[in-house]
Amino acid sequence: MKVMIVEDENIIALELERIVHDAGHQTIGPVSTIEQALAHASRSDVALVDLSLADGLSGAQLARRLIDRFGVDVIFVTGSPESVGNGIEGALDVIAKPFTDERIASALSRAQSLRRDYEGRNAVF
After folding, report:
1. Which of 16, 74, 108, 122 is least enclosed, having the fewest CB within 10 Å?
2. What are the mean pLDDT values of the chain's consecutive 10-residue runs (125 residues total)?
């Protein structure tokens, strides 16, 4: 699975990248702005998205575009999960910082299972 990392804090982005690789997935990015993320969206299956990016509190706005325009599954990874409220329709999960390797890997595993289920239902025989 191709996982885009959308995070403007370099140390956190590198940690997410390591976890994604350890879980057996490919990474795209890290990227830190809406513009950069949208440029890579068509190559992504899943995006780990922070709410606060280099171009402001734009993670929720980005998530909506990734879900609606590109069919990318979104998992929020944020220091302020309460800002997501009841969630954003179509987002798979909200993970609070600080996070554990297991929490990220579990969310990715769930995303992969959901993608397989969806692709299996939409297969043309």
Report:
1. 122
2. 97 98 97 96 97 87 94 93 75 94 97 79 50
Q: What are phi and psi of 9, to 5 degrees?
A: -95, 115
Distances (CA, A) of 42 to 29, 79, 96: 13, 27, 26
Contact (CB, 8 A) for 61 and 34:
yes
Contacts of 4 (CB under 8 A, 6+ apart): 27, 28, 29, 31, 37, 40, 41, 43, 44, 46, 47, 48, 72
> pTM to 2 decimals?
0.91
Distance of alpha carbon 47 from alpha carbon 24, whole angstroms:
15
